[in-house]
Amino acid sequence: MIYSKIKGCGSYLPEKILTNSDLELTLDTTDEWITSRTGIKKRHIIAKDQLTSDLAFEAAKNAIKDANLQPNDIDLIIVATTTPDKVFPSTACILQKKLKIKECPAFDIQAVCSGFIYALSIADKFIKTNSAKNVLVVGADAMSRITDYSDRSNAILWGDGSGAVILSSSNKEGILSTHIHAQGEYEDLLHVTKKEQAGVFKETIDMRGNQVFKMAVNTLDMIVDETLSSNKLAKEDIDWVVPHQANIRILEATAKKLNMSMDKVIVTIDEQGNTSAASIPLALDYGIKEKKIKSGHLILMEAFGGGFTWGSALIRI
Ligand code: COA
């Protein structure tokens, strides 16, 4: 049996930090409100001269090094992003150029905050069908580029960053299953629209936060059940949850569903905010580097995002 095994991971956060106190200066909000409603204290913001592919490049370099591979060992690149450098070519192709990888298929996946799970799911199929041996899967987003910083209802949430994994073909257990879903009828609850700011039209995020919150909690409940039952596993079998970091209260609801203490949930939202497709690989890299997640552990990744899209991955590390 061929498995996709995580052979290495890496991440990158841009230098600039935007704290809740910084936001208090420009928005009708408080550190207390943001912390209690979201769990977020600060987020990283991409530099003016950086692009999403630059974020992806740093995380990818770290992951390739961690896997003890050379860039040209990579035979497929998938980048999950909502904030590509350009309409075309794909950020994956630009990343390929930056990594100086000579030739391999490279493409982007757009599933917003569920993007990394979608990308992982596709990469797993390539490996299981023997169509690739070493896949670079990146989640990278510059959400600050599409945030309306005059809209307190969601400007407080977003951050920028990137995370990457190398998935390699192995006969040892790795990805046990992935589950992806979408329901486009909810498009309007969380989407990017053109809004006027100081006479200029800009495409920025528009969200019905409360409705998204309720849908996210209920949907993640269902995906936990779906993942466990399709693997005939019990809640207690999970060592770590590595969730998309949207809101600490959503993470707490998932932990409750799993009868798990928050000690078994990787939390980075306080330091990073919601980095969309980057948040799961950032959390994974953090969990591994902090020696929380160890070889042999069973981890559950889950995400929910615009679309709506949602998904999960059950992985033996
Ligand atoms: N500071 C202070 N007050 C704020 C505020 C802010 N930054 N943003 C909203 N408020 C106010 C609202 O105006 C409202 O005031 P009112 O009662 O006088 O009308 C009140 O706080 C409650 O607003 P509501 O939207 O119901 O708050 P909430 O508890 O749902 O929290 C979110 C808002 C955005 C934090 C929360 O809904 C959320 O996290 N939703 C999910 C978002 C998400 O995960 N999105 C991405 C999916 S990947």
How would you describe this protein?
- The protein has nine helices and 13 strands.
- With 317 residues, the protein is of the alpha/beta class.
- The strands form four sheets. The protein has a five-stranded mixed sheet with strand order 1-7-6-4-5, sandwiched between helices. A four-stranded mixed sheet has the order 8-13-12-11, sandwiched between helices. Strands 2-3 form a two-stranded antiparallel sheet.
- Strand 12 and strand 13 form a beta hairpin.
- It has two domains: 3-171, 3-Layer(aba) Sandwich (Peroxisomal Thiolase, Chain A, domain 1); 176-316, Thiolase/Chalcone synthase (Peroxisomal Thiolase, Chain A, domain 1, 3-Layer(aba) Sandwich), CATH 3.40.47.10.
- The chain binds coenzyme A.
- Coenzyme A is lined by residues 29, 33-34, 37-38, 113, 152-154, 156, 207, 209-210, 212-213, 216, 246-247, 274, 304-305.
Relevant terms:
9 helices, alpha/beta, globular, 317 residues, Peroxisomal Thiolase, Chain A, domain 1, 4-stranded mixed β-sheet, binds coenzyme A, 5-stranded mixed β-sheet, 2 domains
